[in-house]
Amino acid sequence: MPETVLLRGAPLAEALRAEIAEQVALLTGQDGGSVPTLAVVVASADPAVAKYAEAKGRTAAKLGIELTLERVDPADGQQALDALIDRLSADPSIHGILLELPLDPRLDAERAIRRIAPEKDVDGLTPVNLGLIAAGRESEAIAPATPLACIRLAESVTPLRGKRVAVVGRGRSVGRALIPMLINRDATVTVCHTKTPDLAAAIAPAEIVFVACGAPGLIGGRQLQPGQIVIDAGISVVDDKVVGDVDAATATGVAAALTPVPGGVGPLTSTLIFHNLMQAIALQRALEGRQG
């Protein structure tokens, strides 16, 4: 049985954190420089949401980044959340805004995301950033962290230019952005999803398969071709265990390389949020220059 290489996100994340720390030191050391500041908005009583926000705080502290945690009581309603985002968007001391998802069911995440200033949208989910990416103007945008993590992990094995790739999943958080991002890198893209008949036949020509449906075990060894590179961005909890969309047990020995869940896309995604904060600061400075 051929060996399957496990593509872990931690080594890439560690190298990226070193780059970010250098950028932060340069920014704060400049005359009139300020500490890069990220506002994380929590509008949910879910303990997991608070846990994710606190984890970002620990990473920020190691990088020399200031993180401010902004809480909204869901009982105060959508207007309170909207008002907070408007205030943060207008505050020049705040360089990035992250809306920690999911929100309380009483709140509208799409409406809240649309209120984030695009140049402070470190999650890359505003219509402006997604539109720029779709228009092939990715250098002017902030790209969503999870699709960017998927791409970086794939590129750690092989260049994307000219590659036949399949994206299984068309969701708002991964697939919708990943598809144009792959096209921007000159890949030839086939789009599939949970309604695609004969999924195995659809992805068979692909050299790289990206999976992000939130459907545990959707892809296994029977659906894959020997030698394919598989990037699993799916995440679900089954029997109190975090699992991906790929059945790793049957994919191992078929795929040439595979991202484990957990330990693959996730660690890199969380670090790319801070990479995006650096991109946000650059965009804000460019905007100030044009306005000046």
Model description:
By secondary structure, the chain is an alpha/beta fold. The protein has two domains: 33-119, Rossmann fold, CATH 3.40.50; 145-266, 3-Layer(aba) Sandwich (Rossmann fold), CATH 3.40.50.720. 42% of the residues lie in helices and 15% in strands. It has ten helices and eleven strands. The strands form three sheets. The protein has a six-stranded parallel sheet. Helix 6 crosses helix 10 (265-291). The radius of gyration is 19 Å and the shape is globular.
Kindly list the characteristics that best describe this protein.
globular, Rossmann fold, 2 domains, three-stranded parallel sheet, 292 residues, alpha/beta, six-stranded parallel sheet, 10 helices
Number of helices: 10
Structural class, by secondary structure, is alpha/beta
Radius of gyration: 19 Å
- Distance between the amino and carboxyl termini: 63 Å
> Strand-and-helix sequence, N→C?
EHEHEHEHHHEHEHEEEEHEH
Show unreliable segments.
Answer: none
Largest sheet: 6 strands, parallel
Widest β-sheet, arrangement of strands:
1-11-8-7-5-6
**Would you identify the CATH architecture of the largest domain?**
3-Layer(aba) Sandwich
Mean of residue pLDDT values: 94
How much helix, percentage-wise, in residues? Answer: 40-55%
Number of domains: 2
What is the CATH topology classification name of the largest domain?
Rossmann fold
Counting DSSP E segments of at least 2 residues, the number of strands comes to: 11
